[in-house]
Design brief:
NDH2-like_C; FAD/NAD(P)-binding domain; transmembrane helix; binds flavin-adenine dinucleotide; elongated; about 30% helix; alpha/beta; 6-stranded mixed beta sheet; flavoprotein; 14 helices; about 475 residues; 25 strands; 4-stranded parallel beta sheet; FAD/NAD-bd_sf
Length: about 475
């Protein structure tokens, strides 16, 4: 094990986590009389609020990430280490890495965030990925886009319908944003791209156990959000508690929704490192911190962001949002300066600047104190604020350019399916148009005239609308219901 104590001349601060909290702490220590080491198991900072846009092919991962080393390039007293932390020795003031190395500190800030929680059903995780990392987002994107490809080659109408059914579990901001975006891609971006299916007939179901979507928002805003979602084609199911998820679908009590694509946006739990600190945690594993953000018995150790549990106004825990993490990062850094100067630490006061969520490409809800906004103006405010808070000038330019392109063309620039796909693509039957191939075309709800043109191009005869049970398949009514 390497002991770094011998190299430390000024107090040394170790920051674990390069997310919103860790990064804002590191930046706030820029001019402090300390040296610092920021440790993250990833080499990049991720702007999670736009992760759903990567999952739905609007943006690429590089648009919403920035290398931590690059962000802190000009802070010469700050070292960046890409490493995984596995535990702490608080009495000896050491941070233990999985590599076996130990980092010594005088002050420690832990900001390792949160991860998905499946409410005691870990078996749901492989079939219902959550959205937290770049890998999660590209996996969700992969599954979403692959479902259309597999449906294009699927001859069985029931299997095709299951492939084109997307269930999002949890109607908080992430679930609402994902579902809205999925419905719009299917109905607009991909509508002309397939020959055997109608992507617009895809079913996007947003399932929420509670009585309303966006339950943290004002009731009127959440009712507006539900209406706006329905308008863009999302089937909103509130008061529906998911009782089972497997590779073939989702169960809500007795009801079964056949669906090959499920996304989990329902629950989070704190990073396991919270428990490794050996101090009390709440029921989701968040560390119960003191008002100055330190942990009981260790004024030199701070826990911030999603990993921390601290009561806000009204006795409710502060929400797990970027603003809290950012403000706590700055506050922890300021308290470290005070400790160095021998001054007492101060309590953290959260300044709530409001919250917002988008619903598709033209609507959003926004709540800031007594100010409540919805619709197009809220959506424009959402765009401006998110671009403003993105880390890095390059990212801001890239994201604005992509958004302008997406808005004007309805197209999604990042429709990339990566990785091996062979096993996931449904085996094709006989090619359409082969004499003995029961050439039962596979379109769903597509206008007959377009089908006729396509069929002619493929050397087939398209049945008329009236005789189109086989042509339109059993999904036609479903398509009608959706639209
Ligand atoms: C999809 C999504 C959308 C969101 N949208 C919004 C929004 O619109 N507005 C908003 O305010 N908030 C939003 N949030 C919440 C916001 O992103 C979080 O509150 C914020 O990221 C918390 O910051 P943090 O620093 O505590 O943790 P994070 O930003 O999650 O950072 C944790 C860091 O710790 C690192 N780490 C974890 N474990 C280890 C380890 N063992 N060793 C080393 N490094 C480790 C991780 O790699 C990561 O870089 C969203 C979150 C998600 C997932």
């Amino acid at each position: 094990m390497t002991d770094q104590t011998q190299f430390i001349k000024v107090p040394h601060v170790v920051i674990v986590g390069g997310g919103f909290g860790g990064l804002s702490a590191a930046r706030a220590l820029r001019k402090a009389p300390v040296s610092a080491t920021l440790v993250d198991r990833r080499n990049h900072h991720l702007f999670q609020p736009l992760l759903y846009q990567v999952a739905t092919a609007a943006l690429s991962p590089a648009d919403i990430t920035a290398p931590i080393r690059g962000i802190l390039r000009k802070q010469r007293a700050t070292e960046v280490r890409m490493a995984e932390v596995q535990g702490f020795d608080l009495p000896a003031r050491r941070v233990h890495l999985t590599s076996g190395e130990a980092l010594a500190y005088d002050y420690l800030i832990v900001a390792t965030g949160a991860t998905h929680a499946y409410f005691g059903h870990p078996e749901w995780e492989p079939v219902a990925p959550g959205l937290k990392t770049v890998e999660d987002a590209t996996e969700i994107r992969r599954r979403f886009l692959l479902a259309f490809e597999a449906a294009e080659g699927e001859r069985d109408p029931e299997k095709r319908a299951a492939l084109l059914t997307f269930v999002v579990v949890g109607a908080g901001p992430t679930g609402v944003e994902l579902a809205g975006s999925m419905a719009e891609i299917a109905r607009h971006s991909m509508i002309r791209d397939f020959r055997n299916i109608n992507p617009g007939s895809a079913r996007v179901v947003l399932v929420e156990g509670g009585p309303r979507v966006l339950s943290a928002y004002d009731e009127k805003l959440s009712a507006y959000a539900a209406r706006a979602l329905t308008r863009i084609g999302v089937e909103v199911r509130t008061g529906a508690i998911v009782t089972g998820i497997d590779a073939e679908g989702v169960s809500i009590g007795e009801e079964r929704i056949p669906a090959r694509n499920v996304v989990w946006a329902a629950g989070v739990t704190a990073s396991p490192l919270g428990k490794a600190l050996g101090v009390p945690t709440d029921r989701v594993g968040r560390v119960m911190i003191r008002p100055d953000l330190s942990i009981p018995g260790h004024p030199e150790v701070f826990v911030i962001g999603d990993l921390a549990s601290l009561e806000g106004p009204g006795g409710r825990p502060l929400p797990g949002v970027a603003q809290v993490a950012n403000q706590q990062g700055v506050h922890a850094a300021n308290n470290i300066r005070r400790l160095i100067r021998g001054e007492p630490q101060t309590s953290f006061r959260y300044v709530d600047k409001g919250s917002m969520a988008t619903i598709g490409r033209r609507a959003a809800v926004m709540e800031a104190g007594r100010v409540k906004m919805k619709g197009w103006f809220a959506w424009v405010a959402w765009l401006v604020i998110h671009v403003f808070f993105l880390v890095g000038f390059r990212n801001r330019i890239l994201v604005m350019t992509q958004w302008a392109w997406n808005y004007l063309t309805w197209q999604r620039g990042a429709r990339l399916i990566t990785g091996e796909t062979g096993a996931e693509l449904a085996p094709r039957g006989k090619p359409i148009g082969t004499p003995e191939g029961h050439s039962e075309p596979m379109s769903e709800g597509r206008p007959a005239s377009r089908d006729a043109a396509l069929a002619a191009a493929q050397g087939q005869t398209a049945p008329s609308d009236g005789e189109g049970a086989g042509w339109m398949g059993g999904d036609r009514s479903q398509a009608g219901n959706r639209e």
